[in-house]
């Protein structure tokens, strides 16, 4: 039986989640290492903390922070994770008015670095010795997301593993909640295809078939943590074995694949448990379509999902009507040009392009959502189409569909 994970032994490792890539990547590169800098000066050397040191230092700094914030909670981690001289504490935004300079003085820090919602302090290990330091990271959170971010950022690398799997089922886990990516529009609008499902950590765990009570109990070893993660119905070892080039968020995946905890999981733990996450285990029949239907029902988001699709379909119809009106053609010529554009026009990385092969499905056809308004269509899309519609017709004719009387969109 696992040893109880008492508060004194619930440590926390490095944060790394999609919603915090920018500032955490910078934080990792300019603050964490022994050869890096906090501001213009060299960063002090941080030393690994023993459990006893960690408990004492964390308790002292937690009491200081409680004078400034209403909610102050150290983040959890497995005891076997290397702490690298860091203490992580989550706080909310409400509390006694103060400045970062006030915090630095009260915490006994010699320097600090602010990126996004995280304030990192360099604090001498001993007041009379400025040669060894530990790092205190204070993560400021809005009160409405406090419980969610506490769960998600505790054992954060484990949640990163789950997010890698979730992406393959059309979900996303980040600092604001669990989201569903709408399959019908994610190809053309990857930044605006999310339906928020929940920011309730217990509801998320129930849906993913994770044991919330076991999580609350804490994990004494990495084996216990990995065993818990891999019991989720979305965990599949084939997703973990994929290379970083197979994912959308390049910086994120390259970093997560090289992180110590993920490396241990992928290169040491998984090979010892060959049956874990195999397609015959843990709901092997679950696919994206069935899981999407279940999620919309479970979280009561069917209407939100339908509304988002409807918004894009209406916007798509309006877009093509505007293009048809702008083209200097009528009758059969206009119909042929419209078919050509629908077959070969595509948005790629925010730009309009003509692709050599035809679209087969409506979700591949360009569309516009509610955030892309009339000005953008009139000033960018329509002028571009007027300049390139003849190229689209030529592509359509060469593809062999030019003589067809039916649209290539089936």
Any chance you could write out the topology, listing elements then pairs?
Elements: H1 21-30, H2 51-65, E1 72-74, E2 86-92, H3 100-107, E3 111-115, E4 118-126, E5 129-141, H4 146-153, H5 156-168, E6 171-174, E7 177-181, E8 194-198, H6 201-208, H7 212-217, H8 222-229, H9 237-240, H10 250-258, H11 260-272, H12 288-298, H13 302-326, H14 331-344, E9 345-348, E10 351-354, H15 374-398
Parallel strand pairs: 2-5
Antiparallel strand pairs: 1-2, 3-4, 4-5, 6-7, 7-8, 9-10
Helix pairs in contact: 13-15, 14-15
Task: Characterise this structure.
This protein is an alpha+beta fold and 410 residues long. The strands form three sheets. The chain has a five-stranded mixed β-sheet with strand order 1-2-5-4-3, sandwiched between helices. A three-stranded antiparallel β-sheet has the order 6-7-8. The longest helix has 25 residues.
Labels describing this entry:
410 residues; five-stranded mixed beta sheet; three-stranded antiparallel beta sheet; 14% strand; disordered C terminus
Summarize the structure.
With 410 residues, the chain is of the alpha+beta class. The protein is built from 15 helices and 10 strands.
Which oligomeric state applies? single chain
Shape: elongated
- Structural class, from secondary structure content? alpha+beta
Ranges with pLDDT <50 over ≥5 residues? 1-42, 243-254, 360-364, 403-410
Give the biggest sheet.
5 strands, mixed
What share of the residues lie within helices?
Answer: 40-55%
How many angstroms separate the termini?
A: 58 Å
Order of helices and strands: HHEEHEEEHHEEEHHHHHHHHHEEH
Mean pLDDT comes to 77
Kindly report the spatial arrangement of strands forming the biggest sheet.
1-2-5-4-3
Strand content: 5-15%
The total of beta strands comes to: 10
H/I helix tally: 15
């Amino acid at each position: 039986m696992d040893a109880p994970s008492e508060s004194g032994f619930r440590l926390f490792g490095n944060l790394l989640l999609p919603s915090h890539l920018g500032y955490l990547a910078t934080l990792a590169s300019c603050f964490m290492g022994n050869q890096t800098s906090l501001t213009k000066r060299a960063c002090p050397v941080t030393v690994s903390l023993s459990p006893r040191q960690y408990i004492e230092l964390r308790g002292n700094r937690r009491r200081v922070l409680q004078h400034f914030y209403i909610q102050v909670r150290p983040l959890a981690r497995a005891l076997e994770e290397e702490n690298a001289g860091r203490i992580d504490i989550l706080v909310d935004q409400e509390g006694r008015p103060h400045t970062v300079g006030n915090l630095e003085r009260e915490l006994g820090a010699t320097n600090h670095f602010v990126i996004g919602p995280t304030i990192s302090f360099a604090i001498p290990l001993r007041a009379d010795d400025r040669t060894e330091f530990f790092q205190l990271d204070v993560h400021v959170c809005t009160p409405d997301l406090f419980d969610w971010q506490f769960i998600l950022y505790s054992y954060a690398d484990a949640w990163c593993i789950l997010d890698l799997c979730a992406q393959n089922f059309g979900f996303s886990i980040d600092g604001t909640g669990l989201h569903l990516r709408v399959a019908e529009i994610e190809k053309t609008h990857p930044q605006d295809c999310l339906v928020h499902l929940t920011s309730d950590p217990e509801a998320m765990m129930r849906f993913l078939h994770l044991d919330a009570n076991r999580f609350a109990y804490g994990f004494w070893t990495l084996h216990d943590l990995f065993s818990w993660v891999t019991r989720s119905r979305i965990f599949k070892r084939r997703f973990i074995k994929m290379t970083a080039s197979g994912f959308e968020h390049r910086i994120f995946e390259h970093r997560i694949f090289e992180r110590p905890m993920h490396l241990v999981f992928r290169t040491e733990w998984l090979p010892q448990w060959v049956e874990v996450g195999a397609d015959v285990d843990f709901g092997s029949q679950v696919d994206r379509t069935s899981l999407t239907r279940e999620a919309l029902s479970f979280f009561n988001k069917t209407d939100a999902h339908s509304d988002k699709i409807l918004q894009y379909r209406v916007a798509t119809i309006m877009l093509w009507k505007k293009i048809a009106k702008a083209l200097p053609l009528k009758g059969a010529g206009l119909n042929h040009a419209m078919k050509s554009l629908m077959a070969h026009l595509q948005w790629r990385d925010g730009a309009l392009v003509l692709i050599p092969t035809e679209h087969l499905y409506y979700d591949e056809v360009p569309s516009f959502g509610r955030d892309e308004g009339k000005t953008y269509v009139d000033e960018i899309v329509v002028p571009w189409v007027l300049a390139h519609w003849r190229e689209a017709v030529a592509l359509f004719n060469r593809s062999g569909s030019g003589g067809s009387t039916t649209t290539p969109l089936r």
